[in-house]
Amino acid sequence: MQNLFQYSDNNKRYHTLSYHNRSRGVKRVKAVLNAGLTCPNRDGSRGKGGCLYCSRGGSYFSGCGSLTEQLLTERERIHRKMPEASLVAYFQAGTNTYAPVSKLQQFWEEALACPDVEAMAIATRADCLPDDVCDALAQLANRIELTVELGLQTAWDSTAEIIGRGHTWDEFKSGYFKLKEWGIRCCVHLINGLPGETQQDMLGTARLLANLRPDAVKIHSLHVMENTELADWWRAGRYIPISREDYVSAVVGQLELLPPETVIERITGDADRSQLLAPLWSADKKKVLAAIDRRLVERNTWQGRLYRPESVQNKDSNV
Ligand code: SF4
Could you tell me the domains of the chain? Predict the structure, then answer.
């Protein structure tokens, strides 16, 4: 039977990362790394406390040892489950372009020298992309498949202010377009359930982002993690997490708005369960994914069904 959605070979109604890899004949798993970099939103250049949901320790992840040691440990873990998989060296913790370019290049060379590393993903902020770094990233992209992962989280400046994001939608777009001008593949991160945001706001973010035609997108719900300012808000009843029902509705609506060719690299979170305070439903990824699939079928819809590039130029237009 023919698949309903063009970027699927198993009746999924959105463009999954696994389909994207399968269709290119690659089997890759992310090896998560911590290069020990800080963030301008923590060290005082853009802000002091960091984003509302960011760990007071400075990052979600604390890898041990040198990058080579981290990569070899990750390689062993990955190969225990999938011996034939190659690795994506994923610089996840902190802001991974926030250092002198010579230091960044040392990190990249160390990762490139590790066996089975076939791709690289570098997580950063859109306001941390000076020309020399973009130039170096473009050179890196000539040597290995590279994705730069940019945190947007929301297109609404009022929400960005509440969460202490430290950059605006316009600043995000400047960084994003810079990467595109340098020909660099870009994956944009969104968070659903940010304080004060409605379904309309979350759909509005997806609609605005759709207009940029991102190569890839990651979506997850806002996690209340131990040792964050958000945890204080949650304990004080100042923040109510999004329900699974509302999260599923938001994601399905966002998928309908995003271009079909955009790869959906993730639609569930991957929080450290020992630190996750809420919402606890987000820890059951299989159930969330099944609910999203089910809702897409019930609504007889799919990624890109409502994608209208011409109609989303104006940020103030109704969602
Ligand atoms: S941009 Fe990332 S690393 Fe920096 S404060 Fe926000 S969540 Fe933390």
Answer: 17-306 (3.20.20.70)
